[in-house]
Design the sequence.
């Protein structure tokens, strides 16, 4: 497999990762972009709004979603990956299957976003290393357990993922961590993570925050999925202030505006 073309995630400023789900059943935008033309149009729209990265997924990871076969997942991705990669913005592939990751990287993806942190498919770590791409290692659980210390659980999970990455030869500068808002966690645990988000920096790696339109927001604001923009912005801007390097969002334009305002506010300035 050919190596990726030397992409390196800049860490000098926050990045907005736009979400493109080419699935019929994703929790928020399922079915809206699963036609080829619609997917390409939405990808270009997110780029025009200022997306730094596009994250493309073809299997819903919402609770209760049915598993998708490798062939079906690839059939959704194959027509769009290369054309989107040619649009000039780094492409991330949202998958936990090593073979999908391998094909996607060959088509131009430069980030593998694995919601199981290299721990689901035993071939994933070596696949990422061989491709020479970045990897997002997300914390996940099969089910929420309100009685555990979620931060300690995340630490243990990350240590295993980091060990797999290092053993496979994934360069440290290619590794990204994600605490996995909404994945195998209670609402309260999600807010524990947000409140202590800065502790995730102990690993010395960029952190991705992905809370866009999730249940933790609906639980507080009592609004449906499509009305969770304000809450998404609040969680993501808090995450950035506590050290996140990337926010993963459905609504790219508003996130880009808020990131720019944060940069303008907290950029060091010489008093006049």
Sequence:
């Amino acid at each position: 497999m050919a190596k990726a073309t030397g992409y390196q995630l800049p860490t000098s400023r926050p990045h907005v990762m736009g979400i493109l789900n080419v699935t019929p059943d994703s929790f928020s935008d399922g079915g809206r972009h699963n036609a080829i033309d619609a997917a390409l149009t939405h990808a270009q729209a997110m780029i025009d709004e200022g997306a730094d990265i596009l994250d493309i997924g073809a299997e819903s990871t919402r609770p209760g979603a049915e598993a998708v076969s490798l062939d079906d997942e690839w059939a959704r991705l194959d027509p769009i990956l290369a054309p989107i990669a040619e649009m000039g913005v780094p492409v991330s592939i949202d998958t936990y299957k090593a073979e999908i990751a391998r094909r996607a990287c060959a088509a131009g993806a430069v980030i593998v976003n694995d919601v199981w942190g290299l721990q689901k498919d035993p071939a994933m770590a070596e696949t990422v290393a061989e491709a020479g791409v970045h990897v997002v290692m997300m914390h996940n659980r099969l089910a929420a357990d309100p009685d555990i210390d979620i931060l300690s659980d995340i630490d243990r999970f990350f240590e295993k993922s980091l060990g797999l990455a290092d053993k496979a030869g994934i360069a440290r500068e290619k590794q990204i961590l994600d605490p996995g808002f909404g994945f195998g966690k209670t609402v309260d645990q999600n807010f524990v993570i947000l409140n202590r988000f800065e502790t995730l920096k102990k690993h010395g790696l960029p952190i991705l925050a992905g809370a866009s339109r999730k249940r933790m927001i609906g639980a507080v604001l009592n609004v449906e999925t499509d009305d969770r923009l304000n809450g998404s912005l609040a969680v993501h801007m808090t995450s950035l202030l506590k050290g996140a390097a990337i926010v993963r969002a459905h609504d790219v334009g508003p996130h880009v505006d808020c990131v720019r305002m944060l940069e303008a506010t907290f950029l060091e300035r010489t008093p006049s």
The chain has nine helices and eight strands. The longest strand covers residues 15-21. The longest helix spans residues 150-168. Confidence is low (pLDDT under 50) at residues 25-31.
